Give the backbone structure.
Amino acid sequence: MRVVGIVVATVLLIAGYFWIVLSWNYSTGERAGWVQKFSKKGWVCKTWEGEIALVTMPGTAQEKFLFTVWDDDVAAQINRNMGRRVSLRYEEKVGLPTSCFGETSTYSISSRWARINSPALRAALRSLTM
């Protein structure tokens, strides 16, 4: 009987830990840029993994933002906007013990097409495509 109590207590502690880690966000925010890579990966647990290039002006060094997507609807939004500037809302979760939840700690929760508001950036991008 004592062993059963220890097993039940251990299972409850582990379940409680996962509930806390999955419901609490270390940070939330939004990033905008061009999606460079986006694919479904994993041996057992398949998650969408992506990389967005954060470019402020053409010719400057780019910063890469790695993210994971759990929701297939959000993944479809990102796939529809490939090649366009997108804005990703994300949550950063810390303390997930395995890579089964994704390769990164940042999880995109929504995506939308992002308009380019800077006339100088729009002109520079037009000149690159001509």
